[in-house]
Amino acid sequence: MTPIKTNLCNFTYTAPAGMTAEQCGDLHCMRNPENHTITSFWKPEPEEAAAIASGGLVMLTIHGLAHPPVFIGACTTEENAKLIRPPLLNQEELYAAMGKLINHIEACGGSPQLTTTVMLASDINQAIGNQWNPASEHAAQRVRAIIA
User: Fold this and answer.
1) How many angstroms separate the CA atoms of 43 and 16, rounded?
2) What is the DSSP letter of 55?
3) C-alpha to C-alpha distance for 53 and 112, rounded to whole angstroms
4) Buried b / exposed e along 42-65 (16+ C-beta atoms within 10 A)
5) pTM of the model
6) Over the chain (148 residues), what is each successive 10-residue block's mean pLDDT?
7) Disulfide engineering: 123 pairs with which of 43, 92, 128, 139, CB 3.0-4.6 Å?
8) In 10 A of CB 32, how many CB atoms?
């Protein structure tokens, strides 16, 4: 995929000192302080577009062993790109998640499932703590996957 500079781009990441443009090109992006996000735009190469159209997968690779909150979406126009935002949890989903957490704690008592329970508790806490934080929105997605 090729990074694309759009009219929405208002910031550019550049290569670190000592690296050439061939090693690390500029990445034009849109910084949005209202929802604390940075968005870059990518156009698939023809063979990638064909693979996606035929049911292929989009890959996201994070270098390193920590995975930051990310969102991958598609848009047809630049204006639509400003509107893409994962949905927040509603009160019913928060209560359902808390119920699942209590059930997990009672059921696993020190087993390997405890790790999953702790992660769920963290996601619920993050989702409750600040519903307008983009990281909380991704926590909301993980909580929905567990309570589904």
Assistant:
1) 24
2) T
3) 39
4) eebeeeeeeeeeeeeeeeeeeeee
5) 0.51
6) 88 87 87 79 91 88 75 72 59 74 70 67 63 57 72
7) 139
8) 16
